[in-house]
Design brief:
This protein is α+β, with helices and mostly antiparallel strands. The chain has 16 helices and nine strands. 50% of the residues lie in helices and 7% in strands. A four-stranded mixed beta sheet has the order 1-2-7-4.
C-alpha cells in the first residue's frame, strides 16, 4: 500500500480525535447552563447553516429562534453571540470589564502577534490604548488644530471633485486619500498628494486586507488553520502586512534620526520619546518597535477605512434620496451660507446631524463588530459563559432593533429628530461599539464626517450618471471585514 495514501486518513482521525475531546469539554457540559445553540455536526459544527459571505444574517435568524444569547460553533471556533440593544448594552457597558478582551483568532494572531491596540490583550492593550488616546488628543483630536487640517483637506477634495467637471467618476480612491491624510498628519506629521504612488500603495494594502479579512476563505482558515495551505487569501494578507510594516519601520527610523523630544511632530515621535525613557530607566516593557509598528498599522486601518466607507455611503444615499439631499443643502444655506463649515455649526444643524447619524445606522458598516472575549467566568442573562469565550456583539441587531427604531430597515433621518425637529440622541446608536473597547477615534471620525459632508454638499449636487435612475442604485454592501457600498459612479454638479 502507498504510504502517502495513509496521510490524509491519519490526518482525518487526528482531527476527529481532537474534536471528540473537545466535545467532552466544559463548553459542552449542559449542567453548567450554557447558552442554547443549534445542533452541531462533527468537525463542521454549524458551518453548513451559515451564510459565510454575510454571517451576521445567519446570526440574526438564529437569534429569532434561540434568543438574544446563544452559541454557535464554526469548525473548532466556539462563539457566543449577543443580539439586540438591551443585551449588547448590558454586556459591553454594564459588565464592561468582563467583556473587555479580544479572542485568539488564528489569522489576527499571526498578523499582530498580540501587539498594538486592536487585537492586543491585557496590560499591553491598556498601555497602548492609553498612550494612543493621549497622543491623538495631543495632536489635535477634538481641537481646533485638527479641525483646520480637515478643513484644508476639504478644500483639496473639492478641487479634486471639480476636476471631473460634472462627468461621472468613481470616488473610492479620492475619499480614501482625503480621509487617509488626516490620520497620516497625526501619525507621521505630514500629508501626501492624492496621486503619490507610495500613498496609493499604502491605501491599497489597507483596503485589500480589510476586504480579505472578512472573506469566506479567511473565515474558513480561522476555523481550520491546519489547512492554511489551501487558502491563498491568508498569504496575500500576510504579504500585504509585511509590506505595510516595512514602510512603517523605514518611517520611524527616519523620525528617530531627527527626533527632538522638545519638538515632537507626530504620534511616532511621541512613541519614540517614551521608548527612550523606558531604555534610560531600564524598564523596557511596552514601548518597543513591535508595538509601534502595530499601533501605527491599527491607526491606518481604523483611520482610513471606516470613515471613508461612511462618506461613500453618504454620497450614495444622497443620490438615492434627493429630497433629503435638498433638505440638508437648505440647512447648510440657512446656517452657514457661503462661509466655511466648522464644527461649531453642527449644534445649529439638527437635520444634517440626523442624516449623518442615520447613514451610520443604516449603512451598518461593521455588522458583527470587532469580536470580544470574556475576561472571567460570568453568569449573564441566566447563562454560564466561561472565561476566554469568543463573543460576537451583533451590532447589526442593535442598529436595526425593532424595539428601538421606528423604521429599522429604512433610511429615515427622523430617527434622530424629536417632535420639534431638534436633534435627539439615541441609546441604541452604537456604530462605534461600546464599553472598554469602544473606538478610540470616535471624536475624530465625527469631526471628519460633519466637515467633509457639509463642505461637499455646500459646493455640489450629487446625481447618478446619465442613464441611471435613483432606483437603479445598488444598496447591497460589498463583502469584507467592513461593509462598504459596491463601487459606483457619481456626478458632482457644481452649485450655482
Amino acid at each position: 500500500m502507498d504510504w502517502t495514501q495513509l496521510v490524509p486518513i491519519s490526518l482525518f482521525f487526528i482531527l476527529l480525535t481532537i474534536f471528540l475531546l473537545k466535545m467532552n469539554s466544559s463548553w459542552n457540559n449542559n449542567s453548567q447552563n450554557l447558552p442554547p445553540r443549534p445542533r452541531i455536526l462533527p468537525l463542521l459544527g454549524n458551518l453548513l447553516i451559515m451564510d459565510m459571505k454575510r454571517p451576521h444574517k445567519t446570526m440574526l435568524k438564529l437569534s429569532k429562534v434561540y434568543g438574544p444569547v446563544f452559541r454557535i460553533q464554526l469548525g473548532f471556533q466556539k462563539i457566543v453571540v449577543l443580539a439586540g440593544y438591551k443585551t449588547v448594552k448590558e454586556a459591553l457597558v454594564n459588565h464592561a470589564d468582563a467583556f473587555a478582551e479580544r479572542p485568539n483568532i488564528q489569522l489576527f494572531d499571526e498578523i499582530h502577534e498580540g501587539f498594538g491596540i486592536l487585537f492586543s490583550h491585557g496590560e499591553n492593550w491598556q498601555v497602548m490604548r492609553r498612550f494612543t488616546l493621549s497622543a491623538l488628543r495631543d495632536y489635535g483630536m477634538g481641537k481646533r488644530t485638527i479641525e483646520d487640517k480637515i478643513i484644508e483637506e476639504c478644500r483639496i477634495l473639492i478641487k479634486a471633485f471639480e476636476s471631473y467637471e460634472g462627468q461621472p467618476f468613481e470616488n473610492t480612491a479620492i475619499m480614501n486619500s482625503a480621509v487617509g491624510n488626516i490620520i497620516v498628519s497625526i501619525v507621521l506629521g505630514k500629508r501626501y498628494e492624492y496621486e503619490d504612488p507610495t500613498f496609493q500603495r499604502l491605501i491599497k494594502l489597507v483596503n485589500e486586507n480589510v476586504r480579505l479579512a472578512g472573506s469566506p476563505p479567511v473565515l474558513f482558515y480561522n476555523m481550520f488553520p491546519l489547512f492554511g495551505f489551501l487558502f491563498g487569501a491568508r498569504n496575500i494578507i500576510l504579504s500585504n502586512r509585511n509590506e505595510l510594516f516595512g514602510f512603517i519601520k523605514i518611517t520611524f527610523i527616519e523620525h528617530l534620526k531627527a527626533l527632538d523630544e522638545n519638538d515632537q511632530r507626530s504620534l511616532i515621535d511621541s512613541f519614540l520619546v517614551r521608548q527612550a525613557e523606558e531604555k534610560k530607566n531600564k524598564t523596557e516593557r511596552h514601548f518597543h518597535n513591535e508595538n509601534l509598528i502595530d499601533v501605527v498599522s491599527n491607526l491606518f486601518v481604523a483611520g482610513i477605512d471606516t470613515t471613508s466607507t461612511t462618506l461613500r455611503w453618504i454620497i450614495l444615499l444622497m443620490m438615492k434620496f434627493p429630497d433629503i439631499q435638498n433638505k440638508v443643502y437648505d440647512e447648510i444655506s440657512r446656517i452657514i451660507g457661503s462661509a466655511q463649515p466648522r464644527i461649531e455649526h453642527r449644534a445649529k444643524m439638527p437635520y444634517t446631524d440626523a442624516v449623518i447619524h442615520e447613514v451610520q445606522r443604516f449603512a451598518d458598516i461593521l455588522p458583527t463588530s470587532v469580536p470580544r472575549a470574556t475576561t472571567v467566568d460570568i453568569t449573564f442573562k441566566g447563562y454560564f459563559i466561561p472565561k476566554d469565550t469568543h463573543i460576537v456583539p451583533l451590532l447589526t441587531s442593535v442598529l436595526h432593533d425593532e424595539s428601538q427604531w421606528e423604521k429599522p430597515h429604512e433610511f429615515y433621518p427622523e430617527h434622530f429628530l424629536d417632535s420639534e425637529g431638534k436633534f435627539m440622541k439615541r441609546d441604541a446608536f452604537m456604530p462605534f461599539s461600546a464599553g472598554r473597547r469602544i473606538c478610540l477615534g470616535e471624536t475624530l471620525a465625527k469631526m471628519e464626517l460633519f466637515l467633509f459632508f457639509t463642505s461637499l454638499l455646500q459646493r455640489f449636487t450629487f446625481q447618478p450618471p446619465p442613464g441611471i435612475s435613483k432606483e437603479d442604485l445598488d444598496m447591497t454592501p460589498a463583502i469584507g471585514f467592513t461593509a462598504p457600498p459596491m463601487p459606483y459612479k457619481l456626478c458632482a454638479l457644481p452649485r450655482s
